[in-house]
Amino acid sequence: MVTSFLGHQTINHRPVDIVDAMWKHPYSRDSGPITETPIPFSASYPPPHARPLSSEPSPNEVNIPIIPPLDAELFPGNPHPTSPHSPPNLSNDTRASDSKERAHIALSRYFVTRVSSFISGEMKRLASQPEVRAHHGQEFSWKSLLSFSFSQLQTKVIEVAPTLWTVLATAAVDTSKRPETASSVSADGRTHTPRDPWISCTVSALMLLYHRNIRCNIMQSIIGTTLFSTNAHRTVHAILSRLGLSVAYSTTTSSLHNLGFSASQKLLSIGRLMMNGVLSAHVVYDNINQYRRDWHSSLGSKNHLESGTAATCIIQENVPGGAFQGPPCYTRPPVPPQEDITFDTLCNEINEVHLEETGVVVILRSLFDRLPYLARRHPDLLGQFLDHRIAKHKLALRKTAYYPMECSNADESTTAGNLEVMNDIARQLGIQDEEFDLKRPIITVSGDQMSVARLRSVKYATQFNRSWSQAKRWVFPLIELWHMRYAYLHGIFSSHWSSATMSGDTGLRSWAEKLNRHINPLKLDFYPADRLATTLKDALTLNFVRIYIRHKCPILSRRTPSPTSLHLHEELLESCEAGGFLHKASSEELIAMAHSIYCTFGTSQAAINALHELPAAASEFFHEFSAPLPSYPRPSTSSFHVPSSEPGTADVEAGVSFLSSPTGCDLPSDEMMYTANHLAGLHPVADDDDDNVEEKSDAHSHPNSNASSGAGSSGSKHLRVPLVKPLPPPKMLQGDLQLYNTIILYRDLIRYSEFRESVHDGDIGRTFEVIKWLRFYFFGSSQYNYGNELLRQFADFRYRCTPDMLTAIMENYLVNPSGLCGRWHERDLLQEHLNFWLKRVFNGQLLTFDSSFYREAVSLNIVGFKDLSQSIFKTLGLSPVHSGHTLRDVTADINHLGLSFLDENLHIYTPGRAQTFACKDSVTRGGEKLLDGKLESFLNQYDAEDFIDS
Fold it and tell me: What is the pTM for the complete model shown?
């Protein structure tokens, strides 16, 4: 019977029931109230597999008892307790009292001893699990760090150490709050409270395990690497390491060197595969700067700006076999470039019909962005354009694989520095000179305009060398798109920003001042200027839509019988309500409206009509938007509502005047062109015809503008560009100079928006349609370096590239790091973001970009640093911290501009209306400069230099 009872074979009683009865019996306690000690809620009893390994815990080395000293209470005055099996030598009078106290405390000590034994055994088993070790028999890599999950480790702790988890959970969560805490965790692992007790229990278990076994350091390694990536101070490393939350700083840096070594081996394997023709890779590089301040300057030590170069290897996809074979790139074409590339050739490259449709899409996009009702009512309208009507070369959706390379202290602004960069790229890819000479491959390398120009100088200086490697014939330079967009933005401001304004002037500068935007056009910060351009484009678009609707729907047909004064955005919102024009408009009507706005206010032809010598002909052209309107009440400026900011998450006209005949006008195209040029020439513009205009970083601030320092200028070069100088208007001007300036600006803003959106949409064909237009624009805005580079790109694609090579280049001109639709970016913008993280993780203030620590431990791991912070937030169930930029609601800005547009009658053609300046039509001026010798000069140089080695 005893055997059956102890073997738990009885029906009504279990062995633990006897112990529980002894524990609860009033005779086992001291006299007084009975206090219940509940069994932990996670597990009523230890599971069957949790065997006690020892009855007595091992003594602690630092004399801190693991179990509280119950012996002193159990046997007062007796340092050596009697065995529980031997009867105590007590009198009958005191035996009952002592037995009550002795039984309860003995059971307490027994329970604590058993729990300690369970926990000790569980910790030993937990330490043997590979999940808790940063090095568990496999290569230490970013894959193991980024796959770290608290939830998976929590499951492992509960499975292997249930007693430990029970103790920690009991200590962390109050009994009365356990149901609420458990229900506050959502299905996706996120918690609705700022503290998560379950993660705290997991972290506590891992901390204790790390103190028990220093090799169980997966969590500590991740926290140490995260601290390094956020540039935490060494004292933070020391404190958290002491607490067991992080490994030591020296351990972190040693691990980073190991991670860097793995990354360098990956680059070597990529180089092997490239030489074997298995895959193709592209290299983009850019300068990186770090300002070093010396607080104790001396003759040999002072403040200085350290310059270096950072590069990234991007894996190319959809590359036809044999696309990057070298010899065809150096075969002289049968027809000399001087005879093949002419001004007419460049003009015929522009697809006027496509550019008109992209202008319509830009207008519709602005309308849908500002009026969400239209996007909901016509969800497929933009998709029909983007996927079918204007699609040119849309890239297949994919996630781009890229690998950062070691940085160096080479100065890529010099020819010698670019030679060092090319040699360093070949070294990191593990490609020897003999392999280059034997297999003669082509590797596409890209950068900004200055880098590409210096790289061409390297090729020119080494072209007489017979070695394929030493002559750098394996390098195929490509100009990048983000810096080109930056230069285009410079061109817009140089063409439209006047050096001074007077009362009655309108334009880019006056509207920027109305919005209190502090822009320095001589040292332009990208992001502030980009946001201003977008706001102006949207405000002009909505204003033209408002005028269009007022002509289509007179005031009597509005919903309110007695209309109140409405601002621009409010008036359009009202039109989206029942009975309004936008509420009833079909997709075809919206397209017709956008087409009418584009043709009237967004083309060079419209600008020419604004300066027409015959006011009657011009009035006929602008009649649709200039007809008399019923009286509308003027909105009050006191009704502006400035919304708060919200956290964010980052074209070519229908025909230029010298390309096609005008539509809807009496005069021939040539006569109108010369008329417009003559009138624009009455307002001279400071123009620099020097072909050696280069990007400079020491441009002085404009005397009438405040310099702004934003993220866009970090590590970027600035263009010294001329500004429009004001002069008295011509006395016999018959056209509308104010409307002319507005049309040219709106046209340029539409092209700029199409350039940007085509990149985000992943349609590189649309991007190059804008680039064909920019071949003229850059010459007209006196940015000859970019103009010549685009001509060279056109010639290289025409003579250097086989059809397969050109296809491969176009397929990989953009990157998509996220793999999401609409998230395509320029390759050099990706490099700019990596450079930002490089400078953020610049821990060693005394180290140079060429130091082994910076090259191996930082530069090669920069993508892992960036991804690790996102991974930590995700595994903790937290929303990622925003970078600090915000997407502000600019509705008040648009309304303010809309009120100004109404006061200025911006849309109405008014013969004789003058301004103190005339903006440059950079497309027309660019065409004139190409005809005046710029094109001929380039072709002579291209033929003499680029094919001398054939």
Answer: 0.80
d(CA 950, CA 330) in angstroms, rounded, equals 6
Asked if residues 926 and 780 have their Cβ atoms less than 8 Å apart, the reply is: yes
Q: How far is 897 from 906, CA to CA, in rounded Å?
A: 11
Residue in the structure block whose two tokens are 């190319």: 316
d(CA 776, CA 206): 64
C-alpha–C-alpha distance, residues 237 and 249, integer Å: 6
Element holding 936 (H helix, E strand): helix 935-946
Whole-number pLDDT of residue 573: 92
Distance CA 228, CA 222 (A): 10
Pairing of strands 304-316, 280-292: antiparallel
**Residue of 773, 740, 864, 916 whose CA lies nearest to 349:** 773
> Which stretches in the chain have pLDDT values below 70?
1-16, 23, 27-104, 135-139, 175-194, 554-565, 627-733, 843-846, 880-886, 943-950
Spatial distance between the Cα atoms of 644 and 892, rounded to a whole number of angstroms: 10
d(CA 316, CA 474): 17
Torsion-angle region of residue 504: left (phi > 0), alpha (psi -120 to 50) or beta?
A: left
| Full strand arrangement of the beta sheet holding 475-479 | 402-404, 304-316, 280-292, 443-447, 475-479
CA dihedral 498→499→502→507, nearest 10 degrees, is: 20
Q: How many CB atoms lie within 10 A of CB 41?
A: 13
Of the candidates 495, 531, 734, 755, which has an alpha carbon nearest to the alpha carbon of residue 613?
734
List the beta bridge partners of residue 695.
Answer: 719
Residues 578-625: pLDDT tens digits? 888 999 999 999 999 999 999 999 999 999 999 887 888 888 888 877
pLDDT in tens, 891-913: 999 999 999 998 888 888 988 88
Q: Which residues contact residue 924 at a Cβ distance below 8 angstroms, ignoring those fewer than 6 apart?
A: 604, 656, 657, 658, 673, 676, 677, 680, 780
What's the CA gap between 878 and 872, in Å, rounded?
A: 9
Q: Report which of 578, 577, 551 is spatially closest to residue 632, judged by C-alpha positions.
A: 551
**Whether 404 contacts 270, CB under 8 Å:** no
**Torsions phi, psi of 663, nearest 5?**
-115, 135
CB distance 668 to 605 below 8 Å:
no
Task: Look at residue 292 and give its three-state secondary structure.
Answer: strand
- Judge contact between 526 and 486, C-beta under 8 A: yes
Q: What sections of 310-414 are H helices per DSSP?
A: 337-340, 343-349, 352-370, 372-377, 381-384
Among candidate residues 488, 483, 471, the one with its CA nearest the CA of residue 419: 471
Torsion (CA) 59, 62, 64, 66 in degrees, nearest 10: -40
Q: Which element (helix H / strand E) includes 696? A: strand 695-696
Cα of 198 vs its chain's centroid, Å: 33
Q: Parallel, antiparallel, or unpaired: how do β-strands 475-479 and 304-316 relate? A: unpaired
Distance CA 444, CA 16 (A): 76
Residue for token pair 């290897």: 313
Res 29: pLDDT: 62
Q: Under 8 Å CB-to-CB from 514, ≥6 apart: which residues?
A: 896, 897, 900
Distant-in-sequence, close-in-space partners of 193: CB < 8 Å, separation ≥ 6: 181, 184
What is the C-alpha to C-alpha distance for residues 315 and 320, in angstroms, rounded to an integer?
14
CA distances, 34 to each of 17, 24, 95, 176, 780 (Å)? 18, 8, 21, 20, 95
87-114: b or e for each residue (b if 16 or more CB lie within 10 Å)?
Answer: eeeeeeeeeeeeebbbbbbbebbeeebe
Which residues partner with 325 through β-bridges?
Answer: 441
How high is the pLDDT of residue 57? Answer: 42
